[in-house]
């Protein structure tokens, strides 16, 4: 299996690269931090030649084209594209810059979508081809103070739903994994976010566990797997009782509340 994996320098992507090479896949792993990608190569040295790395910024069209060219030249086809790279932002929409919205949309939406466009031809030549998008519980139910991130992940899910039907005739599956809070570097790499703005969640999962479940999504061709009890509860509650969910979220989102006149 030939896999192109983005966001492989930390968290879910790092664990997934290891899991895939352990299972015998050939992986082209990418991210900006070359030192981290080299650590990955070191940690998978028992499977020589299985893991290749190309560092670069995925929001750059030139880097995306370099990735597709590498797959064309070395493999002539692609079996799996995993759109995992991503970044979040926290804080009230009104107080954020327009730049924050654009940066979140660039990495969480435009980059995976445009990499996919470049990869479809390669996937058509692949074996049991699939695109796995790493979404989020927040692609199913939005929460306050993460409006840019929720918008990007909702957009990704909507785009994937459309693409799933478009590509069915070519035998390319479009799959999704929607994690909830995961103990990665995600909350240390937030876009344009004040350090006072914290995220709250009920429990968290390890990136290793999320990586194992991502492999399960691929093996079992799961359309969209939502992770964790808390994640599923939020999504179901949001569907059944949307107004009550709004009220509960309003009450619990105290960390990034807009500044009141009495606070000034
Ligand atoms: N952690 C959570 O609680 C959580 C919950 C739900 C969904 N997710 C999703 O899971 C995915 C993986 O996140 P994670 O939790 O593993 O976070 P992470 O540890 O911060 O990993 C993010 C990865 O994306 C890469 N990346 C970010 N910006 C990039 C850019 N401009 N160009 C290339 N690569 C870039 C990072 O690499 P470099 O910095 O080296 O470029 C890193 O490898 C994301 O799509 C995220 O939205 C995470």
Describe the structure.
By secondary structure, this protein is an alpha/beta fold. It has one domain: Rossmann fold (3-Layer(aba) Sandwich). The protein has eight helices and seven strands. It has helices at residues 11-22, 34-43, 61-74, 98-124, 147-168, 207-220, 229-240, 242-252; strands at 2-6, 26-31, 51-55, 80-83, 130-134, 173-178, 224-226. It has a seven-stranded parallel sheet with strand order 3-2-1-4-5-6-7, with helices on both faces. The longest helix has 27 residues, at 98-124. The protein is globular, with a radius of gyration of 19 Å. Bound molecules: NADP nicotinamide-adenine-dinucleotide phosphate. NADP nicotinamide-adenine-dinucleotide phosphate (NAP) binds next to helix 1.
Please write the CATH class name.
Alpha Beta
For this structure, what is the CATH homologous superfamily? Answer: NAD(P)-binding Rossmann-like Domain
Can you tell me the CATH topology? Rossmann fold
Strand percentage, roughly? 5-15%
Q: State the helical fraction.
A: 40-55%
Cα gyration radius (Å): 19 Å
CATH architecture: 3-Layer(aba) Sandwich
Going across the major beta sheet, what is the strand order? 3-2-1-4-5-6-7
